[in-house]
Amino acid sequence: MPNTDDLQKLLDILPLEIRQALEYHPLRNSLVEVVMDLGRLPEARFPNQAEYLSDTPISQEQLNECIQRVGEFGGDNRAGIEKTLHRISAIRNRTGKIIGLTCRVGRAVYGTIGMIRDLVETGRSILMLGRPGVGKTTALREIARVLADELNKRVVIIDTSNEIAGDGDVAHPAIGRARRMQVARPELQHQVMIEAVENHMPEVIVIDEIGTELEAMAARTIAERGVQLVGTAHGNQIENLIKNPTLSDLVGGIQAVTLGDDEARRRRSQKTVLERKAPPTFEIAVEMLERQRWVVHESVADTVDSLLRGHQPSPQMRTVDDAGKVTVTRQQPVSIRGITDEKQDLKTSSMNTSLTPALQPNGWRASGQMLPLPRYSKEPESGISEFERLLDQSLDQPDRFGYGAQTAGPNGEDLPLHIYPYGVSRHQLEQVIQVLNLPVLLTKDIDSADGILALRSHVKNHSKLRHIAKVRQVPIHMIKASTIPQITRTLRRMLDMDEPLTTDERELSLFTQGGSEDEINALEEARLAVEQIVIPKGQPVELLPRSPKVRKMQHELVEHYRLKSNSFGEEPNRRLRIYPA
Any keyword Nucleotide-binding (predicted)? Predict the structure, then answer.
């Protein structure tokens, strides 16, 4: 990655003693900035260290000497050196007198966007995030040059502090054929953004440091006019923008929505939830963790929706080595149980709150949750051998909850989980346990049960069951109907297992009755419609006509995703329509 920095021009404005110390410094080519504060020792900062350049504190005369060589400071207290990318920033006292300078080295580094070149070429708007000094402006400058010179786009740079294209009227050659518009005062940046679109017909607008609500609104206006935006914003991660009311519009804006009772119950959330207000201004976001390690969110809309629903997204992690080879990996999504989920769990498991054991318990009852077992690669063995294997594994587990070593009780209450079904189809339960390979055993003895899985209507009319469960300190988990989706969700919740974002072939087989090819094809059609269109794009989908028996399976699969579906049309053309959440 060649770079040009014109470092000598920056050194020439420094006091003689400091300039001489840097001219022969072994780390001169990696200098980041020089800091000079009145009455303090001058300091040179490098990527991994900092050191003093003199034993004599900086005097006002030395500061004045530098200021005279630099020239006028703008409204943002920044100045530059003509035809260079260096930036000199001033610190003033209460009367406006300059008492400190930060002289930052500006470098045009070529090849910095190799990690995201494929994204730049798509024509979609890109937002760069990262801490100060990680290289956002350097990457922005390189993106502008590639778009203008190599992709032949009409590029206009809104250069508020002359940091992208350098100081002076002639832009630095590092931006290639891209054009630069300067901004008289920082507070006018949003006006210049709109002016650039209206007057100069750009295909791409490049903007550094979007920091105010007016600038965010101007960015949305530009994006809605079909112009590609490439910019940076104040924030380290997308979560920072979501929590920032000033800039949240860049990722679509956040609004509170009141759900109906049915929808809140379906989502297992409170009635008031946060949702994305509009399509995001920037379709792609890049979190610059380090200079050689970036996190790429290919769809900002999907990332924001996942975060608001309590799930961690699965972005790309892109790294580059010294040879320039880019490696792309995918972060595994992790479901995070939010406050709303916990409250809803207390509602659906109504007996849990009143079943605090009087004696000191052990195992999962001590904490109120079980940790999920790892999935087994081999098929589960049957009968006693499988139970003994699970039991031996539970004995070797570390103490998770701080109540001493785990031991399996006489009824095996730690592992596997013993469930007493009441009013729920035993056949369906066994099918879910077998297909998903869950560490669960069904029992006919309520005394040996670790939990009761019951139909809500049965529990309401059976006070004796509620009394027995309370005396024996066994929680009741209720479901509204004995269906595969509800049984699956409740068993996963009892084991504190996160629900997968996608449905695999094993889980798909739960919804078939005969396992015929027609049934499998119909369920696969419904699954692809939900996972590729309804959920990511928020659009309803109509499926192909099916028989009543197969449509019922498709309805159950859609319910598994917590979506709604209706059948419409006349036989034999009656078919399913799936609606977004």
Answer: yes
Whether the CA torsion 235, 238, 244, 247 is positive or negative: it is positive
- Does residue 2 surpass a pLDDT of 60? no
Predicted confidence (pLDDT) at residue 266 exceeds the cutoff of 80:
no
Q: If residue 460 lies in a helix (H) or strand (E), which one and from where to where?
A: helix 456-460
CATH of 505-579 given 3.90.1150.10, 3.40.50.11270, 3.30.1370.50, 3.30.200.20: 3.30.1370.50
- Please say whether the beta carbons of 509 and 487 come within 8 A: no
Cβ–Cβ < 8 Å for 473, 362: no
How far is 377 from 397, CA to CA, in rounded Å?
A: 19
Instruction: Write out the residue limits of the CATH 3.40.50.2300 domain(s) in the chain.
Output: 417-495
Question: Three-state DSSP class for 275?
Answer: strand
What residue spans of 227-380 are helical by DSSP H?
238-243, 261-267, 300-308, 339-348
Return the pLDDT at 215.
92
CA separation for the pair 247, 245 (Å, rounded) = 6
pLDDT bucket at 148, cuts 50 / 70 / 90 = very high
Name the segment(s) of the chain with CATH classification 3.40.50.300. 116-329
Greater pLDDT, 372 or 163: 163
Rounded-to-integer distance, Cα 40 and Cα 55, Å: 9
Structure-block tokens of residue 566: 């209706």
Q: Compute CA 438 distance to the chain's CA centroid, rounded to the nearest angstrom.
A: 29
What's the mean pLDDT in 489-513? 66
78-80 and 49-52 beta bridge pairing: unpaired
The arithmetic mean of pLDDT across residues 142-154, rounded, is 94
The H or E element spanning position 189 is helix 189-200
Closest CA to 554 of 527, 535, 532: 527
Q: Is the peptide bond before 333 cis (omega within 30 degrees of 0)?
A: no
The domain covering 417-495 belongs, at the CATH homologous superfamily level, to: Response regulator (3.40.50.2300)
